[in-house]
Amino acid sequence: MDRLVYTALSGLKGQMNAQATIANNIANASTVGYRADRVNFERLLVQGDGHDSRQPSAETVVDMDRRAGAITQTGRGLDVAITGEGWLAVQAADGSEAYTRRGDLRVAPSGVLETGDGFPVMGSGGPITVPPHDKIMIATDGTLSIVPPGADPAQPPQIIDQLKLVSDKGSTTVKGLDNLLHVRGGGALPEDLDAT
After folding, report:
1. How far apart are CA 180 and CA 80, in angstroms?
2. CA 178, CA 196: separation in Å to the nearest integer?
3. Residue 137 near residue 145 (C-beta atoms within 8 A)
4. 3-class DSSP state for residue 5?
5. Pairing state between β 135-138 and 143-147
6. pTM (2 decimals)?
7. Closest C-alpha to 145, from 59, 49, 78
8. How far is the C-alpha of 111 from the C-alpha of 120, rounded, in Å?
9. Residue pair 123/163 in contact by the 8 Å Cβ criterion
10. Could you give the CA distance from residue 93 to residue 107 in angstroms, rounded to a whole number?
């Protein structure tokens, strides 16, 4: 096949991949906490005789959009929004620690606090388990407290755990296929005590 066709096909392939990335971003525009992928194109210079006019393109998904999205008031006691650049620690499907900004939390029938897409939320000692309760509250610092069943309303709420909020500053992180942020090469991010 003519070399010119290969050059044209490289550009076509890049445009198709970019279109798929944009379509995925549009499809997830209303998904809580979704971070859009960003695509970048670069021209590859082919070295050697007779290649001066050929510059195939290479497309890569560079990163995701890390800017904070708009905060929507829902009125649900378990919906949280992280202000600033913090991330909420969750347990990924493989058991490793991963990160999200998805704040539509719920208590699973097993008692585990999880995100709207089913990932267990991490606290100071691992995934947070919520005991039976009449009321559950999350403070602005991430402290999770409950009013036990039949408790005297005059008594202060019982503190269960605190949401693990982290910062990815200074760390190399990547967006996984599960739409969660992962530390490149494994590991966990340090807790950010200033995140709210």
Report:
1. 17
2. 24
3. yes
4. helix
5. antiparallel
6. 0.71
7. 78
8. 10
9. yes
10. 17
